[in-house]
Amino acid sequence: MTGIDASSVEIHAEHGCDICDFSLPRNAELVNLDVDNPPAYESLAYDDQASKVIEARIDKLEPELRRIGLAIHAKPELGFKEFNAQKVLCAFLEKQAGWTVLRSAYGLKTAWVAEFSHGVGGRVLGFNAEMDALPGIGHACGHNLIAEGGVAAALGAAAALVKLDIPGRIILLGTPAEENGGGKVLLLKAGAYQDMDACLMIHPGGGSANGDAIVPCLAMDSFSVEYYGHAAHASLQPDEGINALDAAILAYNNLSAMRQQIKPYERMHGIIEGNDWVPNIIPAYSKIRYRVRSGTFAELVELKKRAVVCCEAAALATGCTFTVKHGIPHHEIHQNYHLTGEYVRYMKGRFGLDIAVSYTPGGASTDFGAVSYNLPGLHPGYNIPSKPGSSNHTPGFTKVTKTHAAHVATLQAAKGIATVGFKVLADADFAEKMRAEFEKWKEGS
């Protein structure tokens, strides 16, 4: 396992993060999947048997899963500091027969990995459990529910492996710092996903009727620019000063002007920071922090280049020197076609839910995008009851992520990804087609 120093990661979300709204974009073009006539895979009959085992196992664990979600919600922790969440989750998993648990995995103190295997050989299925909260408003993105759902899905799929005697392995990763540190990107680089044939996770959304959706989201990158000037008395010797605040304001205006010539789904947003500013001293220091987003990673690279040049121009115009620090880029999500189809079919048939599917870029960003660039992945959003205006990253959403209704919706979605994931383990034909779709997409991306 490769050690990674999380303290070296440039973090741009000290005052919050807005990368996690997984509802359907307002301009989304929907894709119609024929759920009544799914592809004829090798072992379709396994679905009914497996889903019954999975559902029974999750239902039996329901009270304990509820307590896990509430325990994490009650003690919100920021990225790379999820020690209580790690303790709660690992302690529960260590009590489950057949599971091995490793804390502080892959060089990250709050990461962890739990594994279960049955038989000899077989494929490997992965799930994620996010844990981190937001500054000041706690679990306003529902990562307590994601952790609960990840545990439920993993234990449900493991029960089906044993009951139906299918060889295979299940890996559940505790992934820190989704909000502000790209935890999954760090884990990916350290090799945490290299054995998996597929990886699945769920994410709650609220404040709209479009939360039950599978969307690609946006690729996202972040950067900060620090400007260094020279302080001087603003009235006595203004000619001796080099104004770092002017540099930041020019950069902000340059980027605002640039917005007129970017694609409709692209986004740029940021803030200006400084310290010890007073009106009669020319500021010697300023900082801007920005995020840029686009529909694909390739488009994002070009957009960020243009944005950084706008900031360099501001330094040139004011005579300031500057430094640029880069964050961890997030790819858009490639939602695997076959995993998507099976999830849509299961959720419709079992719970009567119509899952909206769209390939239109828009909305949020997540570090799971990098995972989906390296192996077949699925990241469905699911709706939890909340009032309009109480969507992700609001205090109102924090309140609903501890409700019983949110818990029920989480376990429904967990049953969905567990059943779809089990198909990867049990059906060689399905797994082969899933992988072939990924490889074909990868060649063209």
Describe the structure.
The chain is α/β, with parallel strands linked by helices and 445 residues long. Helix content is 39%, strand content 17%. It has helices spanning 46-74, 83-94, 143-163, 183-189, 244-258, 297-318, 337-351, 368-372, 395-400, 404-426, 428-444, and strands spanning 100-103, 112-118, 123-130, 168-175, 198-200, 203-205, 213-214, 219-228, 267-273, 285-294, 321-326, 356-357, 377-378, 381-383. Helix 7 (337-351) crosses helix 10 (404-426). The longest helix has 29 residues, at 46-74. The chain is elongated and about 85 Å long.
Class by alpha and beta content: alpha/beta
Count of DSSP-assigned helices: 11
N- to C-terminal distance:
29 Å
Q: Which value, in Å, is the CA radius of gyration?
A: 23 Å
